[in-house]
Amino acid sequence: MPGKSLVVYLTAGWPDRATFLKAAKVAAEEGADLLEVGLPFSDPIADGPTIQKTSSAAIRAGMNYDRALDLSQRLPPGLPRALMTYANPLFVRGWAGAFGEIRRAGFAGCILPDVPAEELVTYLPFRPRGFYLVPFVAPTTADDRLARVADAARDGAFIYMVSLRGITGARLSAAAEREIAGRVRAIRRVSHAPVYVGFGVRSGAWAARLARLSDGVIVGTAALEALRRGLGPFGRLLRELRRSIDIRPPAI
Amino acid sequence: MKHPLPSLPDRRGYFGPFGGRFVPETLMTALLELEAGYGKVRRDRAFRRELAALLADFAGRPTPLYRADRLSEAAGCRVYLKREDLCHTGAHKINNCIGQALLARRLGKRRVIAETGAGQHGVATATVCAKLGLACTIYMGAKDVERQAPNVFRMKLLGAEVREVTAGSQTLKDAMNEALRDWVTNVETTYYLIGSVAGPHPYPMMVRDFQAVIGREALRQIRRKAGGPPRAIYACVGGGSNAMGIFYAFLRTRADLIGVEAGGTGLKSGRHSATLTRGSPGILHGSQSFLLSNSDGNVADVHSIAAGLDYPGVGPEHAYLKKTGRARYFAVSDRAALEAFHRLTTLEGIPPAFESAHAVAGFWKERRRYRRADRVIINLSGRGDKDIPRLFDHAR
Fold first, then answer.
1. What residues in chain B have their Cβ under 8 A from chain A's Cβ atoms?
2. pLDDT category, A172, cuts 50, 70, 90?
3. What percent of chain B has pLDDT over 70?
4. What ipTM does this complex have?
5. Contacts of B23 in chain A (CB under 8 A)
6. Are residues B83 and B71 part of one domain?
7. pLDDT band, very low/low/confident/very high, at B282 (cuts 50, 70, 90)
8. Does the active-site annotation cover A119?
9. pLDDT tens digit string along A17-45?
10. Considering CB atoms only, which of B28, B280, B299 is closest to A141?
11. pLDDT (tens digit, 9 = 90+) per residue, B44-95?
12. CA distances in angstroms from A75 to A27, A81, B138, listed in the order given
């Protein structure tokens, strides 16, 4: 099943700057379609223990906005990237200025998990041309709000489908899968933007099932846990995910 | 003096540039439901009767407005204390908990979660949940669990589960992060009972409304007892619920509204939680307001002797009152708060909570501004019993 995307999340500068850059290179080699670079924030309310820990470790090691943008200039040039962070680190810089700087550092857009579509649309006018902001859809998103989400997904933005009620790194279930299918169908009625599913993607089997329902999967917690064990395990996980989403999954 | 405030926030939850809803998408439906549910009950007679009955017979309202004669004599003006310290559970927190827990029951939620710093909001939440038969989980930073051990025990006695938060600075801010993560995970079954005028819309408005009973009573009482309106009102500000509660009824009067923040070991020391005095606009825990954060936007570590003020943010309506000049804010140090604690205890026989002692200290600092006939109200938001063990340890 060609055309499905694999999105890989890494925390900027974690576990250290050199390994972060090497991991990005491995991601490019293993066929990632988009790299989500996390600018660490002190209070990541949408994230589970794994990303909380990588974020606070990166902050302790001196990672910040300027350094994350500098470091990103050295990422593999062929691999598109988006910056993931929370509202405050960009708010304190001023939205318009920050979007411009992030764009110049080579990012195609921003992912802000604590900014729902209602607030996001007020920032759209501050973007540089062609720079996107990613709106989220959750299992709890009611149909009457989807038009608002679709409206925010402009200029190449994808829609980030949160797979479950919970934070990053939680466990998926068959019930969640049915719900995702329903939400994706509802999104298709109002938007042409690609839908990528994230939160809880830990194995090839799950990646295959979610990719079948959508346009791609986002892997974060599992990627960081593999990377903690080393670049080898990290590469093997991405290879497994890539292979799983590219082939028709077995019936379950 | 007309003021637009009583009609704020606007439909999007903004007080001027402050407020809004900055939460993960998963919570949006719950917040919209909450807003609709609250909109319904605030006009519902049966709900209002039930709330009024519980405030009277369970919480012990109205609380007295007490003329503090010896403090007045020492200060050189007429000082009145709004006695929220006499509420059930020892602080104003119960007013909001009763209102929100009744709303939770109306919305069909059987489980309530809350964050707590000093433990006052946790105890009030656990108390109301016990009364209404709701399951209750309280998030509390590990540092606060240690320094407020009696309140932890109290919450457990009331049947609540206390979850210790070891992430980050292990204080109120981290407890709130963890409560939000719980809510994202259990959003359909769980009601998040926020304890201050902070968080995403509609919380700042709703908590203010449930606390506004303080100011409504005080306005009536001071007219009847003292023959006229106050010149000034002092209240301590952490998140700002007791201050908003007493300020709200006075917004359209000529009274000066003064919020006193926690200056910790001194504003220059960097160990304080004086968000409005020293912070700048920022976004945390669901709303845009003032915040103590560094140039990277990471939230600063804060300090106060009063665990209930030890918070890097503040309610968005306070940010708006500051911006419009309708209220002013300044900070007093840990030491000044301790002196005020002793002053009120020895002059009036009323040991205030360390939080409320900041309001007393703020007034004391400015007492020379007032003439003998001037009436000043201090919101005595909580009693000091919870802090006495720490003074005892210190004295030894």
1. 12, 20-30, 32, 167-168, 173-174, 177, 180-181, 184-188, 280-286, 288, 291, 293, 295-299
2. confident
3. 98
4. 0.94
5. 45, 114, 116
6. yes
7. very high
8. no
9. 999 999 999 999 999 999 999 999 999 99
10. B28
11. 999 999 999 999 999 999 999 999 999 999 999 999 999 999 999 999 999 9
12. 11, 9, 43
Domain CATH for B129? 3.40.50.1100
Indicate if B139 and B82 belong to the same structural domain.
no
Q: Taking CB atoms and an 8 Å limit, are A48 and B181 in contact across chains?
A: yes
**In the prediction, which pLDDT does A163 show?**
93
Q: State the CATH class of domain A5-246.
A: alpha beta
The yes-or-no answer on residue B322 being catalytic is: no
- What is the token pair recorded at B294? 């560094």
Domains in chain B, number: 2
Report the C-alpha gap between A9 and A36 in whole angstroms. Answer: 4
Q: Do B353 and B321 fall into the same domain?
A: yes
C-alpha to C-alpha distance for B329 and B281, rounded to whole angstroms: 15
Say which residue the tokens 């932890």 belong to. B152
Q: Which of B115, B178, B217, B355 is catalytic?
A: B115
Burial of A185 (0-12, 13-18, 19+ CB in 10 A): exposed
Within 8 A of A119 by CB-CB distance, chain B residues are 20-22
Verify cis geometry, omega within 30 degrees of 0, for the bond prior to A15. yes
Inter-chain touch A141–B29, beta carbons under 8 Å: yes
Which residue segment(s) compose the domain that B76 sits in? Answer: 61-91+212-395
Q: In the A/B pair of chains, how many CB contacts fall below 8 A?
A: 123
